[in-house]
Every structure is written in structure tokens, then in C-alpha cells.
């Protein structure tokens, strides 16, 4: 363990480190979609552009070994956070340009790779600076801190954008267009300031992190390890069934993720519910997230008592069948906020409940072998790829079909998930789920 980590309690850097990771990720992959929508972009482009920003997080296992080779993990955390802060500052400034969108997308693209690097390095500090007992002790704090990020981003920042737009700049919240730029510029200035402050804080309190065992020392060693990990991955028994499981389990969620919030804020005349950004922030960023966390915790208890193999199909039902709430909301278009909130909370609760099984399956059935960590990352990368690809096309499909027909399509998209769960192979003995898995299931 590093000398610094002995002097400074992990309480000083674990919560802030994981909060900063989540703030960056959620701002890039979730908040930007709402911003694009507010500024007048149609659903197709808004969902597509925001989904492209998931790519760097999907492929981060491919460049993670290079981060291991140079300097210290703390060095990469600090550099990434400073550059992320400056990048968001640049986004806010770029929004004042006449044709800002190409510059904006270039900045967001660079920020996504910086954010993924921050994740790699921050996880590295956590794993190598703390022994296994301390890691388990702080696992709950780690997960809680990460989940504050979505509350602040999808809840607080979206809420703040609506307040600024209507009460400070006195614009009509129901009209989407360039008038929203003023509010969102302030939001990005705030994200920039918070991220830079976190970088300076971590400069003082975060340990350096140690090199992991068998860390590659040259680029050729990295390429050998990566090629060997790919080779051994595809040598696994029934690997294509497990790949299909990893890619398709959350297929319907991928189609719902970006369109759900768009449906909430679109006018009633266009088939939406006509909510403001403020209400969207409260419903999704607060009640929705609480429902996910409650569902994931109860799902973990359910799995611990019943076991994964006899539960997997039920968990698939829990993830997919509650999507029907959005179909019902699109048919009846209720104005009662309690009904709308209940619909979102039901879908999110059961997503959290069933999602735990997905992560445990990857860890216990797909990952075991010579490169357990890398193969687990491949599995989560396949899931991320699914979320990116479905997000890219989801808005275009919704525009073609309309909301009600689109949510019928989402229900049909659950069929591949049921098939891969029914045929999912089990070749390894089940083990009790580690606390880290529950954190991943709640936040992934």
C-alpha cells in the first residue's frame, strides 16, 4: 500500500473520485441528449449524437493497459480531470459561436475519451491502493458516491437548465430552439468548475496507486496480452451464446433509454407528455434513480436466496415486461404527475431488480479463466456497444413510427432477450455475489 494512502483516509478521495467519474459520464451520455433536444434537434439526431459518446467507454479495455504503463494512476486521474474541466469550459465558450455544433461534437468526442481514461485510472487507484478488506469496506461508499453523479447530472443539471431558461432568461420552456443555449452554457461552466476543483482536491488527497501484478512494460507486451486475451475468450465453451447474452440482454432498454426522456418533454400534440426540464430532472434523476437502487438491492437479496440459474428467466421478465408502462403512458398521455412518476419508477425498479442477474452472469459464467478481469470487461463492452447502437437508431425509428408504435416496437425488441436467457449456458459453479457486482448492476 502506498505511504500516502496510509496517511490519508480513503474517505477523503473515494467518494469524490467516483462522484467525479459519474458526473463526467452522465453529463456526456445522458444530459447532452436532453440539451440537444432542447436546442431544437430532432429526436433522431439528438439520440444519435449522444449515443456516439458511449463509444470511448465501450472500448476502454483496449487502451487501459497503456494507462498502466506510464507514470502513476493518480497522474492520469489528475490530468484527465483537469482536461475534462477545461473541455467543458470550452464547450460553454463554443456555444457562443455562430456554427457551434461541429466544434461541440469534436469537444464532446475528446471529452468521452478523457472521461474513460479517468475511469480506468480512478479504478486503478482504488484497486491498487486499498487491500481487499478495505475495498470491501468501502464498496458501499463507492457505489453510493457514483450514484450521486446521476442525481446531480440527470436530476440537478437538467432541473437547473429549465429553471435558468424560464426564470432567469425568461424564455418559453415549451419552445425548443437556440434560446436554450444561454441556460446550457451556465450548466457546462458549473460542470467545468466542479471537475477542476475535484482535480485539485485529488491532487492533495489521492494516493498514487501501485502497479498491478503482471503490468505490461512495453507496447509489444500490451499487444501480446490483448491478442492472447481475445484468443482465449473465443476458445470458451459456448462463447457465441454468451456473446449473444451480453449483447442482447438489454436490447429493449437500449431502445428506451434515450427516447423515454424525449417522450416526457415532447409536447402533447406530438404524442409526448409535455413536461418541463425541471419535472424531468426530478422524475428521472431522483425518483427513477431511487427506484433503480432499491430494485438492485432487492434483486441481490432474491438472487442470494434462489440462485442465478433458476432465476435468470424471471430476471429477464423483470427487466423487459415493465417497459409496457411507456406504451400505456403513450396511449393515455396522462397529465397526473403521480401517474407519470409511478410509470417511470416501476420500469426503473424492475430494471434494477433484473439487471443484477446480468452482471452476475458475466462475472460467474463469461469472465472466469486466464484473463478474468479483461473478459468481464469484454462482456460489459458488448453491453455498452448494444446501448450505443440502439441509441444511434432509436430516435430515427421513433420519428418514423410515432411514440405509441415505437413503444410497441420496444416490446417486440424484448423477444431476443428472452431467447438468449432461455439458452444461456452455465458451465461454472455459482458463487455468492460479491458486493461490487451489486454496485455495477445498480449503476451500469
Automatic annotation (TrEMBL):
Classification via InterPro entries: AmpG_permease/AT-1, MFS, MFS_trans_sf
Gene3D superfamilies cross-referenced by the UniProt entry: MFS general substrate transporter like domains (1.20.1250.20)
Location, primary (coarse class): membrane
A cellular component annotation (GO) from this entry: membrane
SUPFAM superfamilies per record: MFS general substrate transporter (SSF103473)
Pfam families listed in its UniProt record: MFS_1
Compartments where located: Membrane
Domain of life: Bacteria
Ranges that cross the membrane: 12-34, 46-63, 75-94, 100-116, 137-160, 183-201, 239-259, 279-304, 311-332, 338-363, 375-397, 403-424
Topology class, membrane: Multi-pass membrane protein
Keyword terms, alphabetized: Membrane, Transmembrane, Transmembrane helix, Transport
GO molecular function list: transmembrane transporter activity
PANTHER family xrefs: MAJOR FACILITATOR SUPERFAMILY DOMAIN-CONTAINING PROTEIN 3, SOLUTE CARRIER FAMILY 33 ACETYL-COA TRANSPORTER -RELATED
Name of this protein: MFS transporter
Record organism: Undibacterium parvum
Amino acid at each position: 500500500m502506498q505511504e500516502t494512502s496510509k496517511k490519508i483516509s480513503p474517505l477523503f478521495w473515494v467518494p469524490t473520485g467516483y462522484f467525479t467519474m459519474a458526473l463526467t459520464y452522465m453529463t456526456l451520455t445522458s444530459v447532452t441528449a436532453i440539451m440537444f433536444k432542447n436546442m431544437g434537434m430532432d429526436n433522431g439526431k439528438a439520440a444519435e449524437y449522444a449515443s456516439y459518446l458511449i463509444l470511448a467507454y465501450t472500448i476502454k479495455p483496449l487502451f487501459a493497459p497503456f494507462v498502466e504503463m506510464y507514470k502513476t494512476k493518480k497522474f492520469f486521474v489528475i490530468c484527465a480531470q483537469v482536461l475534462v474541466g477545461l473541455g467543458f469550459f470550452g464547450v460553454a465558450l463554443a456555444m457562443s459561436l455562430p456554427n457551434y455544433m461541429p466544434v461541440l461534437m469534436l469537444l464532446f468526442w475528446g471529452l468521452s475519451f478523457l472521461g474513460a481514461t479517468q475511469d480506468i485510472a480512478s479504478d486503478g487507484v482504488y484497486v491498487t491502493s486499498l487491500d481487499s478488506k478495505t475495498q470491501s469496506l468501502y464498496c458501499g461508499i463507492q457505489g453510493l458516491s457514483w450514484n450521486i453523479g446521476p442525481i446531480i447530472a440527470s436530476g440537478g443539471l437538467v432541473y437547473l437548465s429549465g429553471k435558468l431558461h424560464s426564470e432567469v432568461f425568461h424564455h418559453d420552456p415549451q419552445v425548443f430552439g437556440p434560446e436554450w443555449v444561454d441556460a446550457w452554457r451556465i450548466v457546462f461552466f458549473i460542470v467545468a468548475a466542479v471537475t477542476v476543483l475535484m482535480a485539485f482536491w485529488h491532487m492533495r488527497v489521492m494516493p498514487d496507486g501501485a502497479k498491478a501484478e503482471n503490468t505490461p512494460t512495453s507496447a509489444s507486451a500490451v499487444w501480446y496480452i490483448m491478442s492472447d486475451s481475445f484468443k482465449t475468450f473465443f476458445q470458451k465453451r459456448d462463447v457465441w451464446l454468451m456473446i449473444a447474452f451480453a449483447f442482447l440482454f438489454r436490447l429493449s432498454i437500449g431502445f428506451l433509454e434515450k427516447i423515454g426522456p424525449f417522450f416526457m418533454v415532447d409536447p402533447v400534440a406530438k404524442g409526448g407528455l409535455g413536461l418541463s426540464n425541471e419535472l424531468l430532472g426530478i422524475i428521472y434523476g431522483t425518483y427513477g434513480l431511487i427506484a433503480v437502487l432499491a430494485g438492485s438491492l432487492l434483486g441481490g437479496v432474491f438472487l442470494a436466496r434462489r440462485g442465478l440459474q433458476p432465476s435468470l428467466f424471471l430476471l429477464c421478465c423483470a427487466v423487459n415486461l415493465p417497459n409496457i408502462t411507456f406504451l400505456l403512458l403513450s396511449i393515455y398521455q396522462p397529465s397526473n404527475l403521480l401517474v407519470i412518476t409511478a410509470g417511470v419508477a416501476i420500469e426503473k425498479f424492475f430494471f434494477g431488480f433484473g439487471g443484477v442477474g446480468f452482471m452476475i452472469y458475466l462475472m460467474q459464467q463469461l469472465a472466469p479463466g486466464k484473463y478474468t478481469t479483461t473478459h468481464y470487461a469484454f462482456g460489459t463492452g458488448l453491453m455498452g456497444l448494444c446501448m450505443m447502437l440502439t441509441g444511434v437508431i432509436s430516435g430515427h425509428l421513433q420519428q418514423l413510427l410515432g411514440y405509441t408504435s415505437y413503444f410497441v416496437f420496444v416490446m417486440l425488441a424484448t423477444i431476443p432477450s428472452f431467447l438468449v436467457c432461455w439458452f444461456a449456458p452455465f458451465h461454472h459453479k455459482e458463487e455468492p455475489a460479491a458486493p461490487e457486482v451489486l454496485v455495477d448492476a445498480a449503476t451500469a
